[in-house]
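Example 3.2
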Amino acid sequence: MSSRKIATIRRPYRDDPPPRRDLLDRRAFLTTTSINATRDCHNRCGFCYLSTDGLRIPYQCRDVDQVVSEVAADGQPYFVFTDNNLGSRPDYLRALCRGLRPLKKIWSAAVTLDVTDNPSLVREMALAGCTGVFVGFESLTDENITAARKKSPRAAEYARRVGVFHDHGVQVNGSFVLGFDHDRPDCFERLVDWIEGVRMESATYHVLTPYPGKPLFRQMEAEGRILHRDWERYNTAHVVFRPKHMTVEQLAAGYEYCYDRTFGHRCVWSRRPRDWRAVPAYLAMAYLYKKSNRLWPWLIRRRLTHWAWRPLLEASRLRHLRFRRRLGCTVADGSPVRAPVYAGV
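Structure, written as tokens:
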């Protein structure tokens, strides 16, 4: 038998073997159940790695029963979908949620904002245990979204759609890209003001990065705006191009400002949930996410990550089960249950 094995992304996704999670030291992980149910995304945003020249990934979904069995087998209270966009096919996401619901676990995933087109889909997610979503809002300026070729609702609808998640007890970690061609020096303050105003639980910021092999890189190279080819700094945390309406220094300072203010004590407190019962878990999430960077390496090296997080995860799961029972007593298009709960992750 040959020791060489060749895999292809074009074979049926269901034929991929499950990972050997039994080889992992559970003590060092928040959860060992990270899983993919789908492959690829219906978007091809100009700044995303999926827009790389020559990259052709067929969109595929694994069998729902296969995903559910894999999650159940690992025995973790919390799991995370690592799909590019779990919501690319709403019909599949709905079926997947109905399959996951009996497991009584909590989970999070990356989705695009259009899953809120139909609030009943968000309800299905919540009933299945979804406590948090990572959403690429990218920008509050419609011209930036259009230029990036992203299929997304208009920025004026963002706040209402965040409310759809909150109405169903789902926290939002918003992802934003800084340095688009329609951004100006005042965009940073406006962005954090908006995040604070809608009580978004968390935010992740990225400096626009024109990776080689993408149309964005070719455009900026043709315009003479690429500063260098030190690839280690092409990591969305450094400015590697010349912005159009601000200086390099202003963009770098704006990136730091967004993080410093968003995770400052005043802003964290102002974004707290209206339901006091959810505040402790929210504060734990907010401070452990960005205020404890020195703590994480210590926990990981000493294999204490699971020990430190398990009580919070289990408490969040039990609280979410109570919330689900209340949510399950409402009709899909009825009045929202305004009692958000948070997984703390």
